[in-house]
Amino acid sequence: MNDNRTKKKAFLPRLCLISSGEERADNGTLLLKQLALLPRSHSCMVQIREKKLNAKELLTLALKAREIELPEGTLLLINERVDLALAARLDGVHLPENACSATVLRTIAPTLIYGCSVHSQSALHLAEKASADYLLFGPVFDTPSKRIYGPPQGLEKLGELCQATSLPVFALGGITQKNAPLCMAKGAYGIAALSLFHDTARFAETIEELYIHINP
Fold first, then answer.
1. Residue range 73-92: average pLDDT?
2. pLDDT tens across 10-46, in order?
3. Residue 65, exposed/middle/buried by CB under 10 A (0-12, 13-18, 19+)?
């Protein structure tokens, strides 16, 4: 791993919050409420993943997110859209398995963080060749939104993937405060979640509880 990627790995938070996928173009979105509620003592990686918004709406959301004063070390990323990441001064881009290679995107924006979703060893090798900075693997546990794609991957596959790479691996899918430690025990660098953070009344408490389990 080159020096630049080593530095990026060292500064990656261990908790990744993924937006709901149900954000609206108007004010008062769940994501903005979540960002405002982030505990000051914990950094977080935030992935803006909103397939239902058009480019203009996504940029508006990203700009509003960037304006919020976030805990030190918190990183804002957006799915696929390098142009919007640059326009909103975000920290990086997350890439689905079928997205453009991070190698190509680095020629346009070399300073951004690039993460890749992977669901298999073959996808892992492609992400490594593309010089990804981190990996998102899942679903590890059962989650309603992923049932149409088949059964969850499970802890054993998570462990196998973590052992096969030096890249930070975030476990995703059905994550709770109770099973997060099981993912860390299998070698995960951190955990990622969506619905776990939807209850804004317990949002800060949930973050605090998770960090008890995922800190090395």
1. 98
2. 689 999 999 999 898 766 689 999 999 999 999 999 9
3. buried
| Alpha-carbon span 35 to 27, nearest angstrom | 14
CATH code of residue 89: 3.20.20.70
Do the Cβ atoms of 53 and 81 come closer than 8 Å? no
Provide the residue range defining the domain that includes 170: 3-32+41-214
Question: Which amino acid is residue 81, in one-letter code?
Answer: R
Q: What angle do CA 50, 56, 62 make, to 5 degrees?
A: 55
Residue 168, phi then psi, degrees to nearest 5: -65, 130
Q: Which two tokens stand for residue 160?
A: 């196998």
Please, is 47 exposed, middle or buried when counting C-beta atoms within 10 Å of its C-beta (0-12, 13-18, 19+)?
buried
Find the helix packing angle between 155-163 and 121-129, rounded to 10°: 30
How many domains, in total, are found in the chain?
1
pTM score over 0.85: yes
Kindly report the number of other CB atoms within 10 A of residue 28's CB atom: 7
User: pLDDT digit string (tens) for 124-140?
Assistant: 999 999 999 999 999 99
